[in-house]
Amino acid sequence: MTHKNNNCIIGIGIDPYSNTLKGRYSTMKVKELKKGDFFTKKRIDSPTEKQVFIRGEYDREQRKYECTRFDDICAVCYLDGSKEVFTDFTF
Known about the structure:
- By secondary structure, the chain is mainly β.
- The chain has a domain at 26-86.
- The chain contains no helices and eight strands.
- It has a four-stranded antiparallel sheet with strand order 4-5-6-7, with no helix packed on it.
- Strand 1 and strand 2 (12-13) form a beta hairpin.
- The radius of gyration is 16 Å and the shape is globular.
């Protein structure tokens, strides 16, 4: 038996902003990823090379994790360890 509540079924619902199913993507915090793991900042089913990042070292000076873009190792961004990122995608 399923319970309907405002256009959603328990466990799986429709995200009103992107019209996609919730609960389909695996999210993790940056600090939970291992060095070298791939991730995206947004929910994307099949991202391009520019949308995929690689988790790098922890930078003590900035107190953030260094993340580089897959297609350009010179494109570096620093993310907080508590930032939620998406890991389940086809690349």
